[in-house]
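Dear support,

I submitted the protein below through the web form. The confirmation email said the job was done, but the results page showed an empty box. After a refresh the structure appeared. I'm attaching both so you can tell me whether what I see now is the final result or a partial one.
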Amino acid sequence: MVRAVRAGRSVRSVAMEYGVSVGTVAYWVEHARGQRLDRVSFDDRKPGRAWNRIRMNVEARILSVRRTLREDSVLGEYGPDAIGLALQEDSSLEQLPSRTTIYRVLERHGALDGTHRQRRPAPPKGWHLPALAQGQAELDSFDFIEDLKIAGGPLVSVLTATSLHGALADAWGVEHPSAKATLEALTDRWRREGLPTYAQFDNDTIFQGAHQFTDTVGRVSRLCLALQVIPVFAPPREHGFQNAIEGFNALWQSKVWQRHHCPDLASLVAVSGRYIIAYRVKTAARREAAPNRRRFPKGFKLNLNTPLKGTMIYLRRSDDRGNVPLLAQTFPVAEHWVHRLVRCEVTSPISASASTPCAAVTHITSHCFARYLTFVPTSHFRGSHERSINAETLSRRCQTSVQLTLKLAR
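What the results page shows now:
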């Protein structure tokens, strides 16, 4: 602004260009009168030092102690905490500076070695499933809170459930967690509330089935497939995918388990039921905006011997060799695709089979597309299988990843 006025433009035209008042332009023109622009201080603050700013000799002492600690300290610590402890031994200081003051002194003089933690925005809800992230589908998450000790009574567990978009919560108390009890709870919930598109679980054998046998599908997965609900299994030892249900678990424990003394399981179930009702009233607005749920089929009866039909999704992370463990087997993805998330879609049945199964992997990044074909001997598979592998980016933030599709024909 000052440069423009000095070039001959009017104060009013400069004020209109920069969107400020005429008085503001006039103030800064007068502030810089008789000085070169590169020597003018345009700081919008009062001249002089703040009344509560630490004295210069104390600042120098802080910097001196930091240098001493950095070079001679046995512990090798020279941060604000270590400097504060060292200054306590200095009797010449009338008042010890606080930790925040020491940190600001170090920051002001550029004496900070570490960098500020960079916090990136969280990905959208359900980013690992495109329809879920776009709000076109609903996902129910299930988990167990295990080994809750009732005083003078047995250990009990609580099966919890919540939906990602609608926050449709449920909780069932059981003495002995089992797949059978889980089937009854899921059937009861979906009969009352309707069917979601996805149902997400962890990798517990109650949900997934036995881990020691190849190509094993548990009871819970069979229930989901019979109801045309896609079961999704979160990757082992990964954070984030189960945040919705883990957050509700923590809320339930703090608001129900820790607040009420329940002498038996029946009283715990009663207290939990009252809390679930109140929680649903609180989150009613979220359910109104959530995707619609499908109706539960009339006269449905689960037959565990029915041939599988549908899709199951396993979220996995590849190992240091680019292999993915799945269904008690190991599937090669790519040698350079190491320690990256993979979405494995297991589809059954498939009408065609190949004498020599072909595994095709397409890696999609923000820069290039590359396709690799890997031929696996037929003897590697049990029975008649065809496995085709396709890939797409899992993350909407350009996180490099791959989708693995396994099609089983039996």
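Response: this is the final, complete result; the empty box was a page-load delay. The chain has 13 helices and 13 strands.
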